[in-house]
Amino acid sequence: MAFPLFRNFHVALQCRYSTSNIARRAIHTFREVRPLRTFRKELQGSQRTVGFVPTMGALHEGHLSLMRQAAAENTDVFVSIYVNPTQFGVNEDLDSYPKTWNEDVEKLQALDKELATRTGSGRITAIFAPTTKVIYPTLPPSSEITGPGSFVTITPLGSLLEGASRPVFFRGVATVCMKLFNIVMPERVYFGQKDVQQTVVIRRMVKDFHLDTEVKIGHTEREADGLALSSRNVYLGARRREVGVVLSRALKAAEKKYLQGKRTRADILWPANEVSTSKMMEQDDLPPSKRARVEVDYISLADPDTMEEIKVVDAAKGAILSGAIKMLPLEEPQEGEDCGLGGGVVPVRLIDNIILQPIN
Ligand code: AMP
């Protein structure tokens, strides 16, 4: 009788031992929900915390900086790589969205090695890379606003700004994040300020649905000239890349006015509009072989909690300055020109923002 008991105890010890050690040796990749849940439950019993970074892959320094933050605050970092179809409208760039699985895994392994050298740092423990059938088990996902399916909607927040230009976007984001949070059950979730409206939507969802996780926001990683890093930047090519920096310059010009003490919408936004309009005019005047035409979708000055447009900034509360531009397809590409992935035919939408911090 004593032997089986002893054996069970031994097996239990082995399980515990193997979970912590396997997790430290290799990054686990999960494609299904059940094995991930089993693994996650084993971590739960041993005082380990999970910081979760949802991504659509095509990883860059912006993603990696969120993972570093997650590793500094948790023992285990889980990363999801999933291009979520329901956040793309019917005519958007779902099919052409960059997919770089091998490079992504290499970047995660390199980051994990780097984290291993830091005392007390968490590690990249798991990648969740599900198929669409796993994430949407009942119905094929719909990108129609009236389409069937189980969705999370956050209104009116999800219909403003980015949501006005992309009506299904935040429904798709909130829905997939709800699913991912339910699967991973992270102590903390990490989002980039680069997508500021997304951070407001996720915070609201976590609050309103009483989700048991803490939302953490990481700063925007930028190129040296100010262009915010984005997976879509690979489509720009040199000519459009140079002009694309106009958005961050326009927002900076507006921020400067706020820091100089201006508080009205007109006083803060006029320099941003001037910077973008003069760039548009400059490009329109160039010959098609030299120019990169750009359209402004919006430049916004909004309340930090509701994202509603405001006329005056309450300095005690601050505000969100944000904008979106569209880099139009390249005209008359030249022999040997760097036109970016896709040869310059894909229009590229760029977004950016600056938080106007409260001033007491
Ligand atoms: P995505 O793969 O584009 O869905 O982005 C995954 C996460 O990375 C989101 O939380 C983004 O806000 C964040 N992210 C994207 N670009 C940047 C950036 N330049 N700096 C910091 N975080 C970013």
UniProtKB/TrEMBL annotation:
<comment type="pathway">
    <text>Cofactor biosynthesis; (R)-pantothenate biosynthesis; (R)-pantothenate from (R)-pantoate and beta-alanine: step 1/1.</text>
</comment>
<keyword id="KW-0547">Nucleotide-binding</keyword>
<protein>
    <recommendedName>
        <fullName>Pantoate--beta-alanine ligase</fullName>
        <ecNumber>6.3.2.1</ecNumber>
    </recommendedName>
</protein>
<keyword id="KW-0067">ATP-binding</keyword>
<dbReference type="GO" id="GO:0015940">
    <property type="term" value="P:pantothenate biosynthetic process"/>
</dbReference>
<keyword id="KW-0436">Ligase</keyword>
<dbReference type="InterPro" id="IPR003721">
    <property type="entry name" value="Pantoate_ligase"/>
</dbReference>
<dbReference type="InterPro" id="IPR014729">
    <property type="entry name" value="Rossmann-like_a/b/a_fold"/>
</dbReference>
<dbReference type="GO" id="GO:0004592">
    <property type="term" value="F:pantoate-beta-alanine ligase activity"/>
</dbReference>
<dbReference type="Pfam" id="PF02569">
    <property type="entry name" value="Pantoate_ligase"/>
</dbReference>
<keyword id="KW-0566">Pantothenate biosynthesis</keyword>
<comment type="similarity">
    <text>Belongs to the pantothenate synthetase family.</text>
</comment>
<dbReference type="InterPro" id="IPR042176">
    <property type="entry name" value="Pantoate_ligase_C"/>
</dbReference>
<dbReference type="GO" id="GO:0005524">
    <property type="term" value="F:ATP binding"/>
</dbReference>
